[in-house]
Design brief:
Layout: E1 3-9, H1 12-19, E2 28-30, E3 37-45, H2 48-60, E4 66-68, E5 70-76, E6 83-88, H3 92-107, E7 120-126, H4 131-141, E8 149-151
Antiparallel strand pairs: 1-3, 2-7, 4-8, 5-6, 6-7
Length: about 150
């Protein structure tokens, strides 16, 4: 049974720039730069037939090219942080694309995504990070910005 999601690729130079932020944080398991992406819709573990249906429906979806950029570093998890993320600057075209994919997935019988969509790139998974070290890391990288980059496919 395949585990599927849709996403956007991160250009190699931006991945390299993000990877330069790695290190100096006990409890962080850093993601390899070649695995950086912006998830649009997590689909999950589904059977092959439904996977083909989802792929065909998404292939028919149109995508108008647009640009996005990374704007800031933060964490997911509130009082129990579990991931360091690079946030994507607010972008109406990105939100339209994600909403269209959500509609397609629901039309094929998939359950609605239960969480609010926050476009991001996961940089590290956290296990019991030291709060002061994590706070210093986030504060030290909060102003990170990437160059804008083009999105033409998912």
């Amino acid at each position: 049974m395949p585990r599927l999601f849709t996403g956007l690729e991160i250009p190699a130079d931006i991945g390299q720039s993000l990877s330069s932020l790695r290190g100096g944080l006990p409890g962080a398991r850093w993601i390899d730069p070649e695995n950086y992406h912006v998830t649009l819709r997590f689909i999950g573990d589904i059977d092959d037939a439904l996977g083909r249906d989802v792929a065909m429906a998404l292939d028919e979806a149109s995508l108008r090219p647009f640009s996005i950029r990374i704007k800031g570093i933060d964490v997911f998890g509130g009082n129990k942080p579990h991931a360091i993320i690079a946030l994507i600057e607010s972008n109406p075209e990105l939100l339209r694309l994600q909403a269209a994919q959500e509609r397609i997935c629901q039309s094929l019988g998939l359950q609605p995504e239960g969480r609010k969509y926050i476009p991001h790139v996961t940089l590290a998974r956290l296990k019991d990070p030291e709060p002061a070290s994590l706070r210093r890391f986030i504060e030290g990288h909060a102003l990170y910005r990437s160059r804008p980059f083009d999105i033409g496919r998912f």
